[in-house]
Amino acid sequence: MLISPPFGGGRAPVLARNTVASSQPLATQAGIEALQNGGNAVDAALATAITLTVVEPTMNGLGGDSFAILWDGKKLHGLNASGRAPAAWTPEYFSGKDAMDPIGWNTVTVPGMVSGWIALSKKFGKLPFAQLFKRAIDYSENGFPVSPVIARQWREAIPILKNQPGFSESFLVDGKAPQAGQIWRYPAQATTLKEIASTEGESFYKGPLAKSMVDFAQATGGCFAMQDFADNKPDWVEPLAFDYGEYTLHEIPPNGSGIAAQMALGILQAANAKQYPANSAQSIHLQIEAMRVAFADVYTYLSDARSMQVPVTSLLDRNYLATRAALIDHQKAGTYSAGDPHSGGTVYLCAADESGMMISYIQSNFKGFGSGVVAPGGIAFHNRGMSFSLQEGHPNQVSPGKRPFHTILPAFLTKDGKPSMAFGVMGGNMQPQGHIQFVMRFVDEYLNPQACSDAPRWRIDDLGKLTVEAAMPQGVVDGLRALGHEVAVQPTNSLDFGSAQAIAKLTEDVQSAFIAGSDHRRDGLAAGF
């Protein structure tokens, strides 16, 4: 692994036996404090995650979802803590609509994130659950200075969300967002956090907090019932494994869309992408095309695991991926439809401790603040329900108790059955795209996590348009255009490429050492001791 930064101007990676990386320095510090107080990597991740709901409300909140992949010292575990559609969400409920709403109550599924905190703490944590809330409660009650990127996101959300129930009352002061450096306090959120902490989440799903959310929904246009919350539970799942070179990439299975990254890597292997120099226009062309092919399948077939009509084994079948790779012209950009495999607004964080435990964790309100709906006590709801389909017979068609297609993806690399790197990239459909770029940098180019994060990225946006970061070399941009790609170069301060954090293992010693990287695109920080 190359330790020195190859891209210039980037941060140096952090080397330590215990480390945390997240998108907000105050949250990272909360995780480090948990480790210093005798907690393990899971405690650190949870303290960080809980604090992030306060200090980075533009990307996540108490009404969101979460996923995790963790190495407990002996094996990998996967956790799906995404919520389900309320009982009222029948196809008939949405009759007359061609697509799900992007904001508002009709995008809000039951929040699963809090249940994920509880599950992780009970199964793997060492510290008392309530202790993990210390910093989050303190920042809610006493305030914290809003960082520059978050202030910008906050300001940009106002025209879109200001009229949603509870938003302006909760997140605006005199109709305005806080400026960078301004102290933000939210005592009502502290009260909610204390209730979650003291009841170990029971209140959130079956008690006073659940009733408050249901009453607010019934009064402002939502359709939640108490039973919707009582029925919620997270699921421990077996992560999907896919070999790439000497490493294995692990992703959460559907309804998570991490399989798209695994499919794209398989397509790239079948297309012999390594024949082209790393970072060349030709190599990036193949990466883009492989991702387009994988998306064509994923958007057609992926859904809640219970309604998948195509098994994931078929989508990851090497022979099938080879047929998909054969569609790609190495000299020209193309368009792709789904194949037939039957024949064959988010925060990410990671933590590791000297015992060897590592966790890759992600939670989200989806698009920025999410739905814009904020229940009393600062419970900002996600808009994950907008990812359902209203197409009759589609595997992802909305129905009661169903989980929607999900874009938030924790990732994990192993080598020879041992942990190698916990990593993740934020930003909607950027996440599987970021995963393949991150993996190729790490596996093929031997770059450290910070350098993998610093490297300029490309992205196929939600409309299918290709964009690249301003730091992408002009020769690569020109080369892509010569291959038929329409390329938009985003400004230097663009947030369209998400953010990333990663922690890789350095040694095989009993007392592990790690190298961590955190993205400059957000206000992230990696720290350790």
UniProtKB/TrEMBL annotation:
Gene3D superfamilies: 1.10.246.130, 3.60.20.40. SUPFAM superfamilies: N-terminal nucleophile aminohydrolases (Ntn hydrolases). InterPro entries: GGT-like_enzyme (IPR052896), GGT_lsub (IPR043138), GGT_ssub_C (IPR043137), Ntn_hydrolases_N (IPR029055). It holds the Pfam family G_glu_transpept. PANTHER family: GAMMA-GLUTAMYLTRANSPEPTIDASE (AFU_ORTHOLOGUE AFUA_4G13580) (PTHR43881). This is Gamma-glutamyltransferase.
